[in-house]
Amino acid sequence: MREQHIASVFDRDLEAIQAQIMKMGGLVEAAIRDAARSLDTRDEELAEQVRAADKAIDDLEEMVNEETARVIALRAPIASDLRLILSVIKISANLERIGDYAKNMAKRTSVLTQMAPVSDSTGALRRMAREVERMLKDALDAYVQRDAELAADVIARDQEVDQMYNALFREFLTFMMEDPRNITACMHLHFIAKNIERMGDHVTSIAEQVVYFVTGEPPEESRPKADKTSTLIKGQV
């Protein structure tokens, strides 16, 4: 009877931690969406909301870390339970980093609103961010549903984000070479594109944690990467 009670308390602890993860994930999805929209629509007020909302994401990560440490200390979990807790710690860390990148995007909005638009670059960045947001939603769904196949699909889709980043990088180089007045704006836009690309990497890390938790093994193949910008830079030198 006592063992059943301990098991039920442990299950409630895990449910509470996972609820915090899902709340954190929802806030991060909103941060990605709002940061991209504020950039595209030049909405400085919305960008400020994104920056302010990042504290809630940071606070949730701290709560997750505290709760998982407490559970490990009090319950001494083993096997799949320990694997779940370790995965949760890594997932929350990745979510926190994605939130930081969204905040960084929002910080540049106020700067870019003072400059002339560069083609449809902000629209392209918003589409790229939308793909990362969809990937994050699917990664979190895979976590809840214990769906390793969906998680593997998210991992594969990171190549699409890399390809979008490569295309934008080429565009920014072209705009800067065509008109030096575009250089400052394009540099800011490039940093935003790189932030979104890094978000995709962290989403992929979340999906990899899901695969590890569900199967007990890391993904079979190393993560495919399609970021060719280092090659492009060398070609310009």
Verbal overview:
By secondary structure, the protein is mainly α. It is 86% helix and 0% strand. It has helices at residues 2-41, 44-75, 79-112, 121-145, 148-178, 183-215, 229-236. The protein is elongated, with a radius of gyration of 20 Å. Residues 1-6 and 232-237 have low confidence and may be disordered.
Any chance you could write out the topology, listing elements then pairs?
Blueprint: H1 2-41, H2 44-75, H3 79-112, H4 121-145, H5 148-178, H6 183-215, H7 229-236
Helix pairs in contact: 1-2, 1-3, 1-4, 2-3, 3-6, 4-5, 4-6, 5-6
What keywords describe this structure?
237 residues, 86% helix, elongated
Residue ranges: pLDDT <50 for 5 or more in a row? 1-6, 232-237
DSSP, total strands: 0
What's the rounded overall pLDDT mean? 89
The general outline is: elongated
